[in-house]
Amino acid sequence: MSVKRALTGFAVTALAATALVITPGDNQASTADAAAEDIPAPEEFFGFPMGTTGKLAPFEEIKDYFELVAEESDSVEYEVAGTTTLGHEYPILRVSSAENLARLDEILETNEKLADPRSGLSESQARALAEQSVPVYYLEATLHSSEVGNLPALVDVIHRLSTERSEYVQNILDNLVILVVPSANPDGQHLMIDYFNETAGTDYARTYPDLYHNYVGHDNNRDWIFFTQEESRIRTRLEQQYRPVVLHFMHQAGTNSPRMWVPPFDEPLGPNVDSIAISASNALGAEVANAAAEAGLPGVSTDDAYGIFWNADVFGTGPHRGASLFLHEIASVRDLALPFSNPDGTPPGARDRSMRTFDPYTEATWTLEQIVEYAKLSMYTALDSVAKDADDWLYNNLYQVNQKSMEPDGGPETYIVPAGQRDPFAVKQLVEIFDIAGVEVERALSTVRAGRQTYPAGSLLIHTQQPMGSWVEQVLEVDQYPDAARKCADCPLIMPYSETTDNLPMLLGLTVQPADDARVARTERVSAEDITAPAVGTAPDGGAYLVEPTSYGLTHVIARLQENDVPVLRATEAFQAGGTTYDPGTVIVPATTAAHDTLVEVSELTALPVAATPTVPAVAALELKADTTIGLIRGANNMPGGWLMWLADTYGLNYEVVEADDYADLSRFDTILVAPGVTKDRIVTGLNPALYPEEFHWARGVGEVGWQALASWVGDGGNLVAVGTAAETARELLGLPITNATPGDRDTFNAPGTLINAQFDPAAPATWGMPAQWPVWFYNSPAYRVDDPAAAVASTYPGSGELLASGYAHGQAALQGLANVVTLDVGEGQATVAGADITFRSWPRAAWTIVSNALYNGPATTVEAAARLAQ
Ligand SMILES: [Zn+2]
């Protein structure tokens, strides 16, 4: 696609940003839509112009406005596309000409046909279809709820598109269907904007101090591999339903970032994203930068930010369907909506003129009005550009990109998930992820042959030559961070904007084999619901049910059994039953009706097999404390803590967040989990009561007294579990005899979000159920030299050989032989620390087993299984 300078279009656009917005009462019938007089201008509806310093409209009012516009205008439709995590509506708008909206089904069908590489279209047929159809342009604001300036700009844009009938607007409406997502996180709009308005006129800080997505906060833009949150699933569904050619995501960056940043994107570029999808977004960014220069809006930068096309956690699945990801980032102001100035009076942002920043910003302040102005320039320019080239966008992004997904690309033809994996729940979750992403999975009904290898019936096959095949490669291949990610041959390696790997099999604990030439007589298409366990048998009175410890889904089993008051025992040694050897950590429960019914239910959920035996095995065991009560120290606005809440809610754990007042008496907790990111300062100092109102009392500091109370609680018999950087907090709290021995200097040692090989002792209670060797998630995490021979070291990094499993690591030999998971006695109590970041965004699912073990085992008591269950 050519980069067309939209001079004519932009002349109108630039003017419109200030003067051409039509308001009811303006006598401009020749350019105003018939509906214009019934649609109030935003200023009239909200009581202030959009983007007024210090003024933010509540999301409910913005929804009301959009509903009103949709009622009055035949160019705008309003729909609720789903329900959010906290139960709010997730609204969308469709904006196009009345004629296009009337034939929307036909447009979407045509676009689907263009994008389907199996539709058998020739190039000329595809060209002809592209000429008949209209592309969808996806326009999204406020995924990040503290980035409040893009939505008011969007309100102005919708008002203009629904009321003005200039040549400029008509071109957009005739040639695009704009799918508008006013907020990709409506919950956050309520939390953030309502809080801002409620604190007006107080001495409180105006920015909401906690996670603006209930579980994941700002990480809601890092959920495009696992799709854990409802909002991530809604967006993915919309992308599949509407097949956009552009995904225009509007964001804000820090106060001293460029005034606006647009593509071209930075290195590194992964191997699996199509060149058209990338180059078209880069071209669009260049057009917006050009438009800003023409309009005299300074401080726009390109090129040196957001190398996001390495790991699918930020860019998602859209580019694999042909959508060009067009991201703009506008500098933020102070306290969401108040003017920002540097304390020294220097202009914010880059000050040196360069090819990346043609026209540095020279004013001392930056305001919400300016954010809105820049956002409108970006939207008006990009919409106009795509509308003028609509046929090319359809042909190139939908037809050409997707056609290539059926061609060999040098990667493996097939990934095989051999039957008989140690964790059936992980298999089920992998298939569920593929279901959401739109990846086709087949199950072999007979033996699979690939080269000299054979795989049994029941193995899964995922072909890379399918519509989402490039994404399949993205998340299944072992990542080797590119040495070419440099500005020049001698320049330093550019570190990724995000993590260095997204390898799903290693995260989930699955063995997946790449293969060419896989041959199998019969297969069937499967989805997650087809991954099931054999029916649960019935054990006779005096017998027992057994569940092997090799699945992270075991947490579901334990939590559900505890909820239903079924005693849960875990064998502390290997034993035999029914001709099978069971590993340490195997769950043993009595043959009661409650146990049976619970296990039937949880086995359906997890696909975990449950064995019924006629006798209780005579084996030493830990009996978990009934109703084990877990406390979570999470910290305000601490994303790892939010992810832990999501995991705990998903697994159904009996947990509560530990609040400031709880430190006076922690005795009701059996076990306390400290989230990564929780430091001594967060616990001791916490949120300042002068700056945050009573509702955040829970996150206030507990002082040295509270800190000591936590230490005493452990020493008096409590069980503390600390993950990632919180391992250091636990060390400091309890004076643990461990020393972080990783080099702090990033030139010497750097492993920023990577998978590192580790060893596990399956006989150690903390690592029951883990394989002897498996990669762990490592984010420049602590790794320990253990100074107490009595400490139970359950996981270490190998003393020799390759440590890097997938991603990037430099100087990883420094980790050799260091400890990862250690359990230590502390007075009457216990602490288990895991230095590696094994709860990171819930991704390292396989390693969740360690957290689960540590949480439940600490408060457990030693019993003999047969004797105990004979009682
Ligand atoms: Zn953002």
Strand content: 15-25%
Hetero compounds: zinc ion
Which term fits the overall shape?
globular
Q: At CATH's second level, what is the architecture of the largest domain?
A: 3-Layer(aba) Sandwich
Radius of gyration: 29 Å
Largest sheet: 10 strands, mixed
Gap between N and C termini, in Å? Answer: 77 Å
Here the CATH topology of the largest domain equals Aminopeptidase
Given helix and strand content, the structural type is alpha+beta
Total beta-strand segments: 38
CATH superfamily of the largest domain: Zn peptidases
Highest-level CATH class of the largest domain: Alpha Beta
Mean pLDDT: 95
Question: How many domains in all?
Answer: 4
What level of helicity do the residues show?
25-40%
Low-confidence stretches: 1-30
Could you explain the architecture of this structure?
By secondary structure, the chain is of the alpha+beta class. The protein folds into four domains: 7-404, Zn peptidases (Aminopeptidase), CATH 3.40.630; 414-530, no CATH class; 544-624, Alpha-Beta Plaits; 630-863, Rossmann fold, CATH 3.40.50.880. 32% of the residues lie in helices and 19% in strands. It has 25 helices and 38 strands. The strands form eight sheets. Strands 26, 27, 28, 29, 31, 32, 34, 35, 36 and 37 form a ten-stranded mixed sheet that branches. The longest helix is centred in the N-terminal third of the chain and has 21 residues, at 275-295. Bound molecules: zinc ion (ZN). Zinc ion (ZN) is lined by residues 144, 147, 251. Zinc ion is lined by residues 144, 147, 251.
